[in-house]
Design a protein that fits this description.
alpha+beta; six-stranded antiparallel β-sheet; four-stranded antiparallel β-sheet; 6 helices; 12 strands; elongated; disordered C terminus
């Protein structure tokens, strides 16, 4: 869970950036090239006019069966590349085309260079792939106005704040809390309690007092 979103480190990359490092669309046209230059990983995307633009890999998303990559713009916005690597299939795939409807703008590889909100990580992915996401500017949900505490998914995202539980355990006091009180005990939760947890945990996490640090 903590490896869902991490700052770029060469040893964490599972994609093939050396041999099977190209992606073509349905017509056979080459639209993406992955490479390593001076020990740094890069994506080159061909736009609709045929021109190529190259972006550095600044983040990795996922660490096992599939991995996506993202780049950080000078504005602070993070954008996810349209092509992801499947470790199971051993090749690059257009994952968005698999899960999105046919009209999805992020499923069009050659549209990536337009840098639209469709590929913005903070607004599309961070709510589930990071911890304690919140806006630092009232009323704004623009990518660079969103901060998170941690790049991965920490315990509190599912189980809720555990400060009171930690205090109880360190003071050797018995805890008689219910399963839907943070930290949530999913193992003993009934179906009805599970539904209650889905409603209760986001509010508990959102009220966490820890101040987030800006994503880098």
């Amino acid at each position: 869970m903590s490896r869902m979103f991490r700052p770029y480190r060469p040893e964490n990359v599972i994609g093939d950036f050396r041999v099977n490092n190209q992606f073509s669309d349905e017509t056979g046209l080459l639209v993406a090239r992955m490479s390593i230059q001076r020990d740094k990983h890069y994506f080159a995307i061909r736009d609709k006019s045929g021109s190529w633009q190259t972006y550095a890999v600044d983040y990795t998303i996922g660490s096992k069966w599939q991995q996506a990559y993202a780049t950080r713009l000078p504005t602070g916005d993070i954008h996810v590349f349209p092509v992801q690597y499947s470790a199971i299939q051993g090749r690059w795939i257009n994952y968005w085309k698999v899960i999105d409807p046919p009209s999805s703008p992020r499923a069009v590889v050659t549209g990536f260079n337009q840098i639209t909100p469709a590929t913005n990580y903070q607004t599309n992915c961070a709510p589930c792939h990071t911890s304690q996401l919140r806006s630092i500017k009232a009323g704004s949900f623009t990518g660079h106005d969103l901060e998170f505490t941690e790049g991965g998914i920490n315990c509190e995202m599912c189980h809720g704040p555990a400060r009171n539980h930690v205090l109880a355990m360190t003071s050797a006091e018995r805890s008689d809390q219910s399963v839907i009180q943070a930290p949530v005990d999913f193992h003993h939760a009934s179906a009805r309690e599970y539904v209650a947890i889905l409603r209760a945990v986001p509010r508990a996490v959102g009220s966490a007092p820890a101040r987030p640090r800006r994503a880098r």
